[in-house]
Amino acid sequence: xxxxxxxxxxxxCNLRSQLDMLNSSEAFCxxxxxxxGNFVPNISIGFPVIKAIGKMSEKPLxxxxxxxxxxxxxxxxxxxxxxxxxxxxxxxxxxxxxxxxIRDSGMLAGxxxxxxxxxxMLEEVIDIVDLVLIMSVNPGFGxxxxxxxxxxxxxxxxxxxxxxxxxxxxxxxxxxxxxxxTELAKAGADILVAGSYIFNSSDPHNAIHSLSML
Length: 214
Ligand code: DX5
Ligand code: ZN
Prior knowledge:
- There is one protein chain.
- This protein has helices at about 15-25, 45-55, 75-80, 95-105, 150-165, 180-185, 195-200, 205-210, and strands at about 1-5, 30-35, 60-65, 80-90, 110-115, 130-135, 170-175, 190-195.
- The chain is an alpha/beta fold.
- It has a single domain, classed as Aldolase class I (TIM Barrel), CATH 3.20.20.70.
- Helix 6 links the parallel strand 7 (about 170-175) and strand 8.
- It is globular, with a radius of gyration of 16 Å.
- The termini are close together.
- Bound molecules: D-xylitol-5-phosphate (DX5) and zinc ion.
- D-xylitol-5-phosphate binds near residues 31, 64, 175 and 194.
């Protein structure tokens, strides 16, 4: 299993040591949560901080934009050194255009769906994405309980990808620990995002390792 630690749960006063820890871990990429206080109720970090993180990180950045109309920020996200830009289905008026522009900018394009959005809504964009991010909590905060029907959404997405002959990856975000991660692995998830499970652990390296063994 590929593991994407969510920096939202990191100690921001010690970002350098947290990044050193992640650089020497088995993490597949770094998940960076951007919140605008509009699409979601919370505000997190912006481009100056992400740029600094991009310079220090040896892992590719997976930037999760919880922002209305994220298509306005494609060049800013790319200039932070981002590998994958995730935008919400619910936040894009012209989703096809936004995903195409992300790819044209040289990044991988990810589309994200909220817990209340059915997988079927992705039918018309599945051929132009590199990854689908299924939210297993309502976005905006770390440390929330896992929403169970996310597991069957992974199963349905796996079927859709097979029908389309797509090699897009399935990523899941929110409330992930060893227990929920095991269920998601069985359902066919490729990447697990985890914040509190990793950073609240007394041994974050081992927490990452335990998820990577699923
Ligand atoms: C929630 C964020 C998540 C969050 C996950 O809005 O998108 O990435 O940091 O945190 P945990 O793993 O604590 O649920
Ligand atoms: Zn996230």
